[in-house]
Amino acid sequence: MRIRHFTFALLILLVLLVGSSNTSAQALDISSGGQPTITGSVSGSVTGSSDVRNDLVVTINFGEVSPLNTNSIVKVVVPIAIRSNQPYQVAVSMSGLNNANAQAVQASDVGFGLQNIRVLGGAGKICTQSTHVIQSPFNDDPSSSVTIGSNGRVVYPSTLANLSGSTIILSGPQLSKNNSSIRQQSDGYVFDAIFTLTPQFFAAGVSSATLLFNISAGPNLPC
Amino acid sequence: MPRHTTKIIFKLCLFTVLLVISAVMCLGQSTSGTVSMSATVSKFVEINSGGAVTLSGNSGGGVTTDGVANSPLAVSINLGELGPGNTNSFVTALVPLKLRSNASYVLSASATVTSSGSTANRIGAADVGFGLGTITRSGVGVNTGADTNATSGDPTLPANGSINGTTGRYEFTAVRSNLSAFSSSTTALSGPYIMNAVPRSNANGLTVPAFFAVKPQFFENGTTTISVTFTVTAP
User: Fold this and answer.
1) Nearest CA in chain B to A208
2) Within a 10 A sphere around the Cβ of A153, how many other Cβ atoms?
3) What would the pLDDT profile of B158-178 be if each residue is shown by its tens digit?
4) What is the span of the domain harbouring residue B81?
5) Is residue B113 part of a domain?
6) B71-119 confidence digits (pLDDT tens)
7) Residue B172 domain-assigned?
8) Does B198 sit within 8 Å of A200, measured CB to CB?
9) Which phi and psi angles does B207 have, rounded to 5°?
10) How many residue pairs bridge chain A and chain B with CB atoms within 8 Å of each other?
11) Residue of A nearest to B18 (CA)
12) Could you state, in order of their start, the residue ranges of all structural domains in chain A?
């Protein structure tokens, strides 16, 4: 009898947990926005999920970026899906990529921009009173804005060096129509995060960095 | 309803709830995601032509295949007459080289000299003067480093050669001033990295002229072929 009571209590607890999950469901969510792609690489790769219901876990290997790579640029496009039932903001913070040698790959050598924010299926909320805003200077495709600085080094309009702590890169009004507790394939928005690296006479070595994308409640914007 | 059946239904319900929770967890939401990235830079060195060849003091002959700046080095030169019929003091060829690297480099040379003659009076490797001239690091994107020239420079300089008082033959006597010092791959030049972090499309680099000189003498008649291979490495 006692076992039955204990089991029943456990069941109630689990149901409450599910209930609480539903209560906070769809509030704010970030996930994969589709299969990432890479072009111009030598021995490079990018891995991530093509399923927008999976977590955002992407690994980019730019490959060889010395002059051994004769392509003009290595470009990676990472689609990212976002969902919310309220105004939101997306922030990015970076760790790593702190080479002491100025001739090694620096954060300023990695172009970073956002483009092509679009509705993810029919359940994405289309607001008419507010717009989704890509924060300056990230509203660009760095591969189409490459210039050469006075020191001969490649310059992009926005790079990872523009990230300072947790930096807001995108904000806007509500993203999703429904309030599902489960990620769906058509209930939010997708944007492309674009990363570029031009092969140059960098100092030899291996460089790495990790970006953390985070979505949170944003400024109150009417929909 | 029998008590046993109730138990089974209860367990099935419990199992169903666990499945639902599992599904929610699997497709659950997250407020963060990660993008990890890495890139590799390997050591890179290259040697190209630094421009057109300059041939002087020749009698006959000429530049058969000239150098083209920033193109692969593949120069062919006919030094012309090297016997006493050529009254110039030296036949000299200047071959501009251009080096680029993202790491410390070593430029080595390896030479073979073959003559159709059969006596000691034929042209040999020691009769071909060799040296590297003034090293220039200039232009946007070029690192200002100090290079080490392992040769003695222009082999025609008075300090680098003279007539042997015993044999009467002209000899290039300074350190690594003739091709006999390069019968196997031997360092001619070395230094720190040449290029800062700039794209390969940047055409600047380190330029240095390679001197080749022969003193016209009473060599044994015949033809001579001189082949020099330059190799740059990043040790």
Assistant:
1) B38
2) 23
3) 999 999 999 999 999 999 999
4) 50-233
5) yes
6) 999 999 999 999 999 999 999 999 999 999 999 999 999 999 999 999 9
7) yes
8) yes
9) -115, 145
10) 207
11) A14
12) 26-217
Judged by CB atoms closer than 8 Å, whether chains meet at B30 and A29 is answered as: yes
CB contact under 8 A, B141 and A29: no
- Tokens 């990472």 map to which residue? A78
| Distant-in-sequence, close-in-space partners of B225: CB < 8 Å, separation ≥ 6 | B112, B113, B114, B115
Taking a C-beta distance cutoff of 8 angstroms, is the pair B39, A197 a contact?
yes
This prediction's pTM: 0.86
Strand partners, A205: B41
Shortest alpha-carbon distance between residue B182 and chain A (Å): 29
Nearest Cα to Cα of residue A119 among A214, A187, A28: A187
Residue of B13, B20, B37 to mutate, interface with A, max A Cβ within 10 Å? B37
Supply the pLDDT for residue A183. 86
Indicate the average pLDDT of chain B. Answer: 92
Q: Flag whether B39 is in a domain.
A: no
Look at A210 and B35 and tell me if their CB atoms are within 8 Å.
yes
Residues in contact with B35: Cβ distance below 8 Å, sequence separation at least 6, in sequence order: A56, A58, A59, A60, A78, A193, A195, A210, A211, A213
Residue A148 pairs in a beta bridge with: A154
Asked if the C-beta of B144 comes within 8 angstroms of chain A's C-beta atoms, the answer is no
Model confidence pLDDT, tens digit, residues A77-133: 999 999 999 999 999 999 999 899 999 999 999 999 999 999 998 889 999 999 999
In this predicted structure, what is the pLDDT of residue A14?
A: 47
For residue B219, tell me if it sits in a domain: yes
Q: What's residue A128's pLDDT?
A: 95
pLDDT at residue B214, rounded to an integer = 98
Length, in residues, of chain A: 223
pLDDT at A4 over 60: no
Chain A positions in Cβ-Cβ contact with residue B198 (cut-off 8 Å) = 148, 151-154, 200-201
State how far the Cα of B199 lies from the Cα of A72, in Å rounded to an integer: 9
Among A176-190, B24-38, B174-188, the least confident range: B24-38
The total domain count for chain B is 1
Partner-chain residue, chosen from B21, B24, B197, that has the shortest CB–CB distance to A103: B197
Q: How confident is the model at residue B8 (pLDDT cuts 50, 70, 90)?
A: low
B235 inside 8 A of chain A by CB = no
- Residue in A140, A120, A129 with CA at minimum distance from that of residue A31: A120
B3: contact with A, CB 8 A cutoff = no
- Please report residues of B whose CB lies closer than 8 A to that of A27: 29
| Nearest alpha carbon to residue B130 among B88, B89, B74, B174 | B174
